[in-house]
């Protein structure tokens, strides 16, 4: 599944990069993007970041409880899941920082069509990253529930 996420991200970055270079007007003069790529996107990203970090914290607590009930082989899998969750959370955080930096750059030259198009493209890419990471994290939640049910079944037997 990881390759699919990276494939989607690569394709979107390629298309938005080509539009930014060849037809910056498509992104820079888009009224929705012009209004959204401001404090509005920061507000959306902060909400997503807060909810996702709370979910990650709960997942860590569940993984700790699950780790106490399984054997060493499953403990390695739990550590791999924990590492993946951590890397996804950090990826969200750094994407948020990149978006803030891009929006600050937009304020320096709001009349430069290429810069504005690049900032709008970065904003869309950061939103896509957020959606992909949330999908991965919530997919992991359902996998953890399944693993916990399996662990409960094996301890009851």
Topology:
Blueprint: H1 2-22, H2 24-28, H3 31-36, H4 39-67, H5 72-108, H6 113-156
Helix pairs in contact: 1-6, 4-5, 4-6, 5-6
Mean pLDDT: 87
Q: What amount of the residues lies in strands?
A: under 5%
Specify the biggest β-sheet. Answer: none
Q: Topology as H/E string?
A: HHHHHH
- The count of helical stretches stands at 6
What structural category arises from helix and sheet content?
A: mainly alpha
Structure described in brief:
With 157 residues, this protein is mainly alpha-helical.
Describe the overall structure.
With 157 residues, the protein is mostly helical. Helices cover 90% and strands 0% of the residues. It is built from 6 helices and no strands. The longest helix is centred in the last third of the chain and has 44 residues, at 113-156.
List keywords for this structure.
single chain, 157 residues, mainly alpha
């Amino acid at each position: 599944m990881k390759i699919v996420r990276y494939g989607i991200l690569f394709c979107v970055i390629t298309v938005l990069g080509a539009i930014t270079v060849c037809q910056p007007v498509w992104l820079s003069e888009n009224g929705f993007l012009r209004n959204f790529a401001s404090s509005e996107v920061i507000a959306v990203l902060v909400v997503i970041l807060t909810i996702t970090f709370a979910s990650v914290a709960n997942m860590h607590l569940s993984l700790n409880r699950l780790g106490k009930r399984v054997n060493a082989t499953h403990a390695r899998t739990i550590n791999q899941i924990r590492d993946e969750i951590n890397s996804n959370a950090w990826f969200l955080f750094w994407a948020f920082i990149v978006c803030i930096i891009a929006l600050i750059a937009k304020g320096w030259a709001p009349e430069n069509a290429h810069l504005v198009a690049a900032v709008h493209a970065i904003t869309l890419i950061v939103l896509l990253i957020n959606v992909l990471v949330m999908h991965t994290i919530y997919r992991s939640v359902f996998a953890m529930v399944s693993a916990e049910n399996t662990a409960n079944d094996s301890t009851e037997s």
